[in-house]
Amino acid sequence: MIAAVSIFGLWLAVLLQGTAAASTENPVVVDLSKDFVAITAGFTGTEVLLFGTTAGKGQVVVIVEGPAVNATIRHKERVAGIWVNGDEVAFENVPAFYQVLATGSLDEWLPLPLRETNQIGVEYLQIRPLGDVDPATAAEYRNALIRNKQLAGHYGKVEGRMTIVGGRLFRSTVFFPADVPVGVYNIRTYLIDNKRVVSSQVMPLTINKTGLEADLYRVAHKHSALYGIAAIVIAILAGLGGNMLFRRNR
């Protein structure tokens, strides 16, 4: 009951903002149920509610995009009955997370030039290879990269649907899996009318590790050698301790 009242209050605030926004030529307003996601040791994934209102006609599309990173895709080869890494291609400016939400099927009302310019849809992401790679090879490895991201739940396979309420309010949920990449995410919202962008809004969402999980993450990345040595020592001590208990119980 409390959660329902809280969400209703947020929706009411957004509706009032949207009404005021019409006079400032910004007819779309969006907000999130939370702007910070804490990853703790027991984190199993979470949903974030996205909601908003539009004071003008048109369709709404929202892009949830994680921080840009470099990524490498390797081709597996079978050598003497063993799978090993073969050729590889590295890419730059790869979104760590990418999801599209829309109030309708994009193919029905969103022109290709707008999709290409604003990178709406995985097929329009400007993911480029590092180094000199021929176009055919780059396309093959790029497709493999996107497939891997989709299998991990970090990229959406198709656009998610947003629920429309009363013709003006819209809402949807974004699911972030347990292994969601950390960093600052950009939530880009576009109001499309008559095949053009009439309003847009960008807001941040921060996902980060907290508590012991954060401390281990910082040590592992900033002091990797020390972290590796500590992990080996702990593993040896755990093995010795288990061996002693086993002997004692025999």
Description:
- The protein is of the alpha+beta class and 250 residues long.
- It contains 6 helices and 13 strands.
- The protein has helices at 2-21, 106-109, 112-118, 135-151, 211-222, 224-249; strands at residues 28-32, 36-39, 46-54, 59-65, 68-79, 82-95, 98-102, 128-129, 160-161, 163-165, 169-176, 183-193, 196-209.
- Strands 2-13-12-4-7-9 form a 6-stranded mixed beta sheet. A 4-stranded antiparallel beta sheet has the order 1-3-11-10.
- β5 and β6 form a beta hairpin.
- The longest helix is centred in the last third of the chain and has 26 residues, at 224-249.
- It is flat and about 75 Å long.
- The protein starts with a helix and ends with a helix.
Q: Any idea of the CATH class of the largest domain?
A: Mainly Beta
CATH superfamily of the largest domain: Macroglobulin (MG2) domain
N- to C-terminal distance: 56 Å
Low-confidence residue ranges: 1-6, 18-24
- Residue share in helix: 25-40%
Strand content: 35-45%
Q: Provide the number of structural domains.
A: 2
CATH architecture of the largest domain: Sandwich
| Principal-axis shape | flat
Main sheet properties: 6 strands, mixed
pLDDT average, as an integer? 80
- In the sheet with the most strands, the strands line up as 2-13-12-4-7-9
Provide the succession of SSEs: HEEEEEEEHHEHEEEEEHH
How many DSSP H or I helices?
A: 6
Topology-level CATH name of the largest domain: Immunoglobulin-like
Radius of gyration: 23 Å
The overall strand count is 13
Q: Classify the secondary structure makeup into a structural class.
A: alpha+beta
